[in-house]
Amino acid sequence: TGKLYLVPTPIGNLEDITIRAKKVLTNADYIAAEDTRTSGILLEKIGVHNRMISFHKYNSKERAPELIKLMQDGAVIAEISDAGMPVISDPGYILVQECIKHDIPVVPLPGPSAFATALIASGFDAQPFTYYGFLPRKASEQKPFFEQMNQARATSIFYEAPHRLVKTLKTMAQILPAERQIVAARELTKIHEEFIRGSVAELNDYFAQNAPRGEFVILVSPNTEAPKQLSWPELITLVDQLVAAG
Ligand code: SAM
Predict the structure, then answer these.
(1) Which residue numbers delimit the Tetrapyrrole methylase domain (predicted)?
(2) Residue 172 to residues 76, 83, 167, 212, 246: CA-CA distances in angstroms?
(3) Distance (Å, whole) CA 125 – CA 34
(4) Angle of helix 60-72 relative to helix 93-101, nearest 10 degrees?
(5) 13 CA to middle of ligand 1, Å?
(6) Number of other CB atoms surrounding residue 108 within 10 Å
(7) Which residue's CA is minimally distant from atom 16 of ligand 1?
């Protein structure tokens, strides 16, 4: 049988394509791309010429069995999204699941993803962290997420569209204490890369003056005061110790 390669592509800077990614994209029988137009431009720029099949969230249910059939017949498929890692807030998950179900090897390539790129420069502890992807759009539906981030001992990371950022920060300010530290990582790897760091109140003021433009990753610092949540193994060890101690 064939196999499925999961291939990350640049999140801005074209030089972030890896040598291996380029090789896999060139040698695959097909490239399954979220948007064949966007990817066509990228592939052209990095000098990859290959066949593309469209595979996105609206056709993935029908397309997945067709791609599985191709791989069962020996095809090697390289899956890419518009930018960054497939599956990370992008399509791909269904195809990975189907490959596993059908015993087709899945080979992930390491490479750029916006959340990890933002996290390592945030200055917040990366262990543990929670990645939320995109939050719901409605303030009422976002609030429970901010409650959770408020209590979390982990760094919280989410993606937000520029035209929604001001409203989302206002909603955050209703839940998180004003002094809680936030980082807005903007236009990573691009010319206008920028890290806007400050409290919830400061970021609200900043973006009220400077309308958000470009792509954003938002990070919320961990709440080091929050009560420590025991994991199941820790909890079981504790119960065992208490029982042993009578
Ligand atoms: N698969 C991608 C990844 O691995 O990061 C994420 C795709 S998601 C549809 C697109 C969102 O990722 C954007 O709205 C933005 O929040 C974030 N993003 C992508 N590229 C970025 C960049 N260069 N700088 C900041 N955020 C970025």
Answers:
(1) 3-203
(2) 45, 27, 9, 16, 46
(3) 33
(4) 40
(5) 13
(6) 15
(7) 159
Closest ligand 1 atom to residue 187 Cα is 24
The residues lining ligand 1, judged by C-beta closer than 6 Å to any ligand atom, are: 11-12, 81, 83-85, 88-90, 113-115, 159, 161, 185, 187-190, 215-217
> What is the tens place of the pLDDT at every residue in 155-186?
999 999 999 999 999 999 999 999 999 999 99
Encode pLDDT of 43-54 as tens digits.
Answer: 999 999 999 999
Angle at which helices 162-175 and 139-151 cross, to 10°: 60
Write down the ipTM of this complex.
Answer: 0.99
At 246 the three-state DSSP class reads coil
- The dihedrals phi and psi of 134, each to the nearest 5 degrees, come to -85, 135
Contacting residues for 159 by C-beta, under 8 A, at least 6 apart = 89, 114, 115, 133, 134, 216, 217, 218
| CA dist list (Å): 19 to 9, 24, 47 | 11, 9, 12
Residue 52 exposure: Cα atoms within 13 Å on the Cβ side: 20
| Mean pLDDT, residues 102-121 taken together | 98
pTM: 0.93
Q: Are 186 and 162 in contact (CB under 8 A)?
A: no
**Residue pair 175/143 in contact by the 8 Å Cβ criterion:** yes
Crossing angle (nearest 10°) for helices 162-175 and 200-209:
150
